[in-house]
Amino acid sequence: MNTARRLSPLRLLTAVVLSTWAGLFWFLIVSGRSNLYLSTRTDWVIPIGAVVLSAAALGRFLSVRVTDAPGLTRRDLFQSALMVLPVIAVVALPPASLGSYAAGRRSNFSSVAISASTEDLASGELSLIDLGGAIRSTEGLNALTERAGSEVSFDGFVVRDKGMPADEFQLTRFIVTCCVADALEINVRVVGVTPGRFSEDEWVNVEGLLYPLGTQIVVQATEITTIPKPKRPYLTP
Q1: What is the pLDDT of residue 117?
Q2: What local confidence, expressed as pLDDT, does residue 215 receive?
């Protein structure tokens, strides 16, 4: 005897939730927004997640009819709503990377176990990650001190601390190892800036001469140029 199969509200709700997350991942791929949330080390999660969640959603839709279909409880609805809320937030909010508001509210790069070798610091082009790693150790600081007066070129956004002179700003960048939750701040003090020329959060390229002062890095600017916001605003170690 054939047993009648009925639509399962719980299975249908699960399929909708899975579809919502799959849609979010496809949206991040198409819009290019994954760069705002993940580092280059982990951005593979987005396409893999899109495929896996799409397959899971399809499988759940194909199995929504069962012989025993209990109704939905308030708990089912509440849990599903909590799972969908992050999706709505990501899609609804305007795309934005971490900026001046987050600067100073994140851990300082120097307190994190990322270092730069003295060999890399002794010669060649210096990067912001090199500087952040150098100030963590005496050897790194010594190697960096030997490079005092070296010409450097850094990209970052403008941050103006309270009480900072009008001809200075902090050139800031965030390093992301996995996702924005572990973002760490890297900054250098730029001096010799034309007062009032650059606004907070404006992206610039700074060329100048580097001078380490203890654990603070100062760049005497020779040229500052406004640049477009990079497609990948975060650095990856």
Answers
A1: 64
A2: 77
29 pLDDT higher than 70: yes
Which amino acid, 60?
Answer: R
Cα distance between the two ends of the chain: 64
How confident is the model over 197-212, as a mean pLDDT?
Answer: 93
Contact 197, 147 (CB under 8 A): no
Amino acid identity of residue 154, one-letter, is F
Q: Which long-range contacts (CB under 8 A, 24 or more apart) does 86-89 make?
A: 87/20, 87/21, 87/23, 87/24
CA-closest candidate to residue 176, choices 125, 138, 230: 230
**How would residue 181 be classed by pLDDT, with cut points 50, 70 and 90?**
confident
- Which tokens is 25 given? 């991942």
1 pLDDT tier (thresholds 50, 70, 90): very low
CATH architecture, domain 109-235: Beta Barrel (2.40)
Answer whether residue 19 shows pLDDT above 60.
yes
pLDDT at site 186: 85
- pLDDT given at position 116: 59
| Helix/strand/coil (H/E/C) assignment for every residue in the chain | CCCCCEECHHHHHHHHHHHHHHHHHHHHHHHCHHHHCECCCCCCHHHHHHHHHHHHHHHHHHCCEECCCCCCCHHHHHHHHHHHHHHHHHHHCCCCCCCCCCCCCCCEHHHCCCCCCHHHHHCCCCCHHHHHHHCCCHHHHHHHHCCCCCEEEEEEEEECCCCCCCCEEEEEEEECCCEHHHCEEEEEEEECCCCCCCCCCCEEEEEEEEEEECCEEEEEEEEEEECCCCCCCEECC
